[in-house]
Amino acid sequence: MADRLTQLQDCLDQLAIQFYASFRYLSTHHPSSSTLPPNPHAPPFPATDTNPLQRPDTPTTFAGAQRELASDLVEKVKEIEYLIDMLPGLEKSEESQVKRIRQLEEELRVVEGERKGAVEEREKWLGRLEEVIARVGAVDR
Questions:
Q1: Is the CB of residue 83 less than 8 Å from the CB of residue 4?
Q2: Are 62 and 27 in contact (CB under 8 A)?
Q3: pLDDT, tens digit, for every residue of 80-133?
Q4: For residues 94 and 113, what is the distance between their CA atoms, to the nearest angstrom?
Q5: Within its chain, how far is the Cα of 126 from the centroid?
Q6: Cα 22 to the chain's mean position, in Å?
Q7: Angle between helices 4-29 and 59-86 (to 10 degrees)
Q8: Where are the alpha helices (DSSP H) in the chain?
Q9: 87: Cβ–Cβ under 8 A, 6 or more apart, which residues?
């Protein structure tokens, strides 16, 4: 599992991809309509579709897709907000964070001492084992 900052960055990357995919879908599947009032003096446009990438959906399908895309974006933003809220230190003062760091450093010193003791004990037992093996090997000869 990745740390919270990596998860947050991944979610932001996914949100950017979702934005791109949403805009792409909306720009290629919207029903065509004129944005300007008709100009009676303008030459007529050809009847053929000028954008071969545009594949309009039915109004019902398009509206449903819009709702689904919006819902997906809202869910991703909620996930990002949750990850931000889970970041350490947002509700803690600097003083309490420094105190916690000191506590953790002390715990680390204790655990490191225990580890060193275990390594020394292992070395002691390893030396005894080597002595026993050497004696057994000497007796067999």
A1: yes
A2: no
A3: 999 988 887 666 788 888 898 999 999 999 999 999 999 999 999 999 999 999
A4: 29
A5: 46
A6: 20
A7: 170
A8: 4-29, 59-86, 94-140
A9: 4, 5, 8
Nearest-angstrom CA–CA distance, 57 and 35:
18
Tell me the pTM. Answer: 0.54
| Mean of per-residue pLDDT scores for the chain | 86
Q: How far is the CA of 66 from the CAs of 12, 17, 22, 52, 70, in angstroms?
A: 21, 16, 8, 22, 6
Supply 92's token pair: 């803690």
In angstroms, rounded to a whole number, what is the distance separating the alpha carbons of residues 83 and 85?
Answer: 5
Distance (Å, rounded) from C-alpha 29 to C-alpha 21?
Answer: 12
Query: Hey, what are 36's tokens?
Result: 């300007």
Nearest to 12 by CA among 105, 80, 60: 80
31, two tokens:
């029903």
Q: Which residue has the tokens 């067999």?
A: 140
In whole angstroms, what is the distance from residue 99 CA to residue 89 CA? Answer: 12
